[in-house]
Amino acid sequence: MFESHIAVGKSLERIDGVEKVTGSAKYATDIRLENMLHAKLIRSPHAHAKVKRIDTSSAEKLPGVRAVATILEVPKVIEYWFSLRTEKKKKQMFLRDNVVRFMGDPVLAIAADDQQTVDKALSLVKVEYEPLPAIYDPFMAMEETDVKIHSRGNIAFKVNKDYGDIQEGLKKADIIIENTYRTSKQKHAALEPFGTCVALYQSNGKLTVYSSTQLPHWSRHYLAGALDLPLNRVRVIKPHTGGSFGGRCGLIHGLEVMCSWLSRQTGRPVRMSFTREEDFIGTETRHPMTIRMKTGATRDGILTATDVDIVSDVGGYGTHYIGVIADCLSTGVGLYKTPNYSFSARAVFTNKSPCGALRGYGNPQMNFAQESQMDIIAEKLRMDPLELRLKNYRELGEIDPVLNEKILSNGLRECLEKGAELSGWEKKRHQWKRYQRSVKATRNRGIGLSIMLHGTGAGKALPDPASATVMINADGSVNLITAAADEGQGNRTVLAQIASETLGIEFEKISVSETDTETTPIDCGTHGSRQAYSGGLAVQAAATEARNQIFAYAVKELGAAEDQLRIKDGVIFEINNPDNKILISDLMRKTQIEDMNVCEQVIGSAAGVAPAMPGYYGAVFAEVEVDTETGEVKVLKLTNAFDVGRAINPDLVKGQIIGGGVMGIGFALTEGLLIEDGRILNSNFSDYRLLRACDVPEIVPIIVESDEPTGPFGAKGIGEGCMVNVASAISNAIYHATGVRLTDLCMTPEAILKGLEER
Amino acid sequence: MKKGKLRVNERRKTMSVYFQIEEYHRPRDLAQAVDILSGFGNRARVIAGGTDILPRRAGVKKIDNINHLVDISRLGLDYLKREGDHIFMGAGTTINTIGASPLFLSGPYGALSDAAGAHSTSTIRNRATVGGNLCNASPCADLALPLLVLDAILVAAGPEGKRHIPIENFFKGVNYTALNNEEVLVEIRIPLCSEKTGSSFLKLRRHQTAIDMAVVNVATSLNCRENRCEAAGIALGSVAPVPFRAKKAESMLAGAKLSKGIIEKAAVAAAGEARPIDDVRSTSAYRKKMIAVLVRRSLESSMRRCGQ
User: Fold this and answer.
1) In terms of domains, do A599 and A638 share one?
2) Candidates A115, A277, A634; nearest CB to B14
3) Would an 8 Å CB–CB cutoff place A695 in contact with chain B?
4) Where is each Aldehyde oxidase/xanthine dehydrogenase a/b hammerhead domain found (chain A) (predicted)?
5) How many domains does chain A have?
6) Residue A424 region by backbone torsions, left for phi larger than 0, else alpha for psi between -120 and 50, else beta
């Protein structure tokens, strides 16, 4: 490590801050191309139906209508990552048929000269449906074999995985707790709705797509497959993005492929932009899960067995359903050193909007169940929940059985200790309890905690490449070329900091490329809390190579041995003779321009996959006040401590912790789509309850740095984990305040009051 | 372009999830507003802050035939003043203006201040008006409840001139009021109460976000003399098609010596007068229970505010 850092560990200004604050940053919705057509979808009014007939004849006669595309010819993308591995599997990625599988499923799109013509044309289209029986409940979908949502059946995926001997583990247990937990269909609710796309298919056979995807290179793969184009004929450009939270992990259902198809038919650019309502009804959500969990522990609070059975509701189309379940497994098994773990899960199709990735993947669901169980065990054993965690968490140096990786950094104990201290855990835990016993108060306070583990990246489970190129210019400035998609969290800034630190060149001299598959090397995208780590490693490696090249020139120039050279603030100098020095800019100008026999640019490149998938950890301490007559819950304060390995940019990390806290409170208390007979009832922001600024309590972010040895400057992830265990901590706090254990999310006042009455 | 009339921008019309209008009228004065309204009958709707009408989605039967909006936001209807034995409130007064007004800080009118503060979020309250809150006639309209217990008089202007409607006669059904198509609500008059009066408002939400509408909301007022109640007002929201006064419960309190017991009894009686329904936000049973809790708490608070 460096003795003193010039960029890492500093809350430097975001590279896109000024652009965004002044409104000049271009988002997908701002993109206008010459001669552009506008397109819109007709969506199914049925939750499950066969499209019998589509009559677009009158619509097509309308002047200004340029193209029509229907699901009969345009494929839907229904499988992700896993299918990229073989040609045979790749074919499974795409589905062309005449069935609509949820209310809002696209049927066709029309492109026309302007939006009014599109609207008019759509009203002239006649679609004849043959309604099919619809299934909304995954348990019914598993039993009902007459109704098949997909030809392969309603069970999309199932898995059983055992570690140790579950029966043996249960035998050793002094107490066994069993409960069933249910989680809601949470929506990402990103500030910029999903999704907007502009596609241009040119006569030279090249397709350019502007889309706010989190995975530009993977989206290129999917588009190339769907349109049967070679990869080098597909270019994906990702403009600035107003939040993704996993919902842009791939293509948006009915968006990019449809747009590209229409553009290919017309040779003109085609723009399609979903309304907020379409975002709510037609794009992916979190997987609602029913989790039955049986946990055994000894009298001393040592976990002996965990038996889990999960039913995950995939909705009408599956994309991330395997990964989400794999995440339940890895985070569930990984967190505690339970010797005997039995895990089974089924992912089931239903006639509801499709589910996909949402911050935390399957972890928030799993964590809600597991951390509720831990709280119950602590209560039964009359043990401090904090102590129970400390006794059981998987520590530094142990092997994670799912990833089969040694834990090389783990700051969980420090998270717990710091969080407990700053929240006043011990005092509040006792005082508030005493207060509740002695006074018949109508407003009870409670404090609860929960912990979590989340993986950084997905290298062990998926093809997870990252790459970067660092080019040093003749004036000593640096171009960093990367496809790392910044969704608004600031990872391009973090990567620039890593480049600056590695090169020894000032942060202000680094500029980061646009996110464009044409000009950037392959990257798996921004998902799985991976960019600071995986992207960071690639940048560090590329910058190291560039630095070595600079040194090679400097050795000649300064006549010093390479190991005697150092770079600081843009100056290369001999360590024991600091006067023997040269500005990088002078050296680079020399080699690039002045020495006409050389004319070489320093270019460092790196590509590959991160060596590990390090876990990052966190502890949340939630304080609530419950009105025992109405069941209302007020979150008073969250104290959230997260081990991020190393905070490259502390302010950006804090931003994540606070934002994750807000999203976690939503998951706990206010969010979730309400569905009645397949229809989503709260498809806008006045009915879907997101926390407003005025609803957000004090959130105290605590950064713990455990120095991950495989990470760039010790960094690992943060993006997802910070929302994972907020709901479980709030639920545990509600229990502390009231003695009511809630097993369903979101937790409503009515459910709490019911619990109080049954207490 | 005709004066007082703005053609709707073509691009605006394409926001098709929301209902669409043909013409947006901005009358110069009240007479012109009434004129325009008279010309279009049930096809026109008054718009002030727009926080109720603009987010309405297409396909809602009640507004499907509306294609003219008449903007009354520049007719000088934004005022608050105390004169003689009334407080006069322009129908175009924003909720935040009411919430910030010193007129309603004291005991008798405290419920108005409470309700204004509990209404949605500050950004919405900067646009939403008291007149809009009443004329939208939602069963859960927050401002309706304090005005009900304060016996407000609503002044409507129409082709025949002005008329006074006691607020109790104003709400006729969900989104349906005593106003005729060509009438505009222009003013709310609140009779001055005795200083021995206290009022308060309480609201319960399903999801604890400020924007959330009420599952149950209540306002109460008490006029007390040495712990004896001379008059009581209890208004309930979200538990019937219209906000209303729980008269039986009120009569239990009138003339009674105020005690924990009688307040509890009145609160239970008030719950008995409600006809809540089951919907996505709550069950009828929960709402009934909550009325009793909220009315009790509100009465206790009103009692504390008496003579403040």
Assistant:
1) no
2) A115
3) yes
4) 22-133
5) 3
6) left
Structure-model confidence comparison of residues B53 and A613, the more confident one? A613
Cα–Cα distance, A320 to A312 (Å, whole number): 11
**Where a domain ends, among A226, A253, A282?**
A282
Please tell me whether residues A570 and A706 are part of one structural domain: no
Q: Looking at CA atoms only, how far is residue A158 from chain B in angstroms?
A: 33
User: Under CATH, what is the fold of the domain B80-191?
Assistant: 3.30.465
For residue A548, give Cα distances in angstroms to A498, A544, A579, A732, B170. Answer: 16, 6, 21, 53, 82
**Nearest CA to CA, how far is B272 from chain A (Å)?**
18
Domain boundary among A609, A638, A653: A609
> Stretch A120-139: mean pLDDT, rounded?
97
The residues, ordered by sequence, that sit 6+ positions from A245 with a Cβ below 8 Å of its Cβ are A188, A190, A358, A359, A487, A663
Half-sphere exposure of B217 (CA within 13 A, CB side): 30
Q: Which of B201, B1, B168, B191 is nearest to B85 (CA)?
A: B191
Interface test with B, best of A117, A443, A687, A758 (most B CBs within 10 A): A687
Interface of A with B in 119-158 (CB under 8 A): 119
CB proximity A277 to B under 8 Å: yes
Q: What is the pLDDT of residue A386?
A: 98
Query: B5-71: which CATH topology?
Result: 3.30.43
| Model pLDDT, residue B69 | 93
Least confident of A259-268, A454-463, B229-238: A454-463
Q: Sign of the CA dihedral A332, A334, A336, A339?
A: positive
The string of pLDDT tens digits covering residues A613-644 is: 999 999 999 999 999 999 999 999 999 999 99
Q: Which positions in chain A touch B122 (Cβ < 8 Å)?
A: 694
Q: Which residues contact B32 (CB under 8 A, 6 or more apart)?
A: B4
Which domain CATH number covers A576? 3.30.365.10
* CA distance readout (Å), A346 to A160, A287, A313, A325: 9, 12, 9, 8
Residue B72 has pLDDT above 50, yes or no: yes
What's the Cα-to-Cα distance from A125 to each of A42, A55, A70, A76, rounded to whole Å?
9, 6, 12, 21
Q: Nearest Cβ partner of A277 from B17, B208, B289?
A: B17
The pLDDT assigned to B206 comes to 80
- Is the four-CA dihedral A236, A240, A246, A252 of positive or negative sign? negative
B126 touches chain A (CB under 8 A): no
- Average pLDDT of span A573-581: 94
Q: Do A691 and B283 touch (CB under 8 A)?
A: no
CB of A115 within 8 Å of a chain B CB? The answer is yes
Q: What mean pLDDT is predicted for residues B56-60? A: 62
**CATH, range B197-305:** 3.30.390.50
Axis-axis angle for helices B284-305, B260-273 (nearest 10): 140
The whole-number pLDDT of residue A403 equals 87
Buried b (16+ CB within 10 A) or exposed e, A480-517: bbbbbbbbbbbbbbbbbbbbbbbbbbbbebbebbebbb
Q: Measure CA A438 to chain center.
A: 45
- C-alpha span between B266 and B256 (Å, rounded): 11
CB A466 within 8 A of CB A538: yes
- The answer on pLDDT for B17 being more than 70 is no
* Min distance A230 CA to chain B CA atoms (Å): 37
Contact status, residue A197 vs residue A383, Cβ threshold 8 Å = no
For residue B16, give the nearest of A119, A749, A753 by CB distance.
Answer: A119
| CA–CA separation, A309 and A297 (whole Å) | 18
**Is B283 in the A-facing interface, judged by CB distances under 8 Å?**
yes
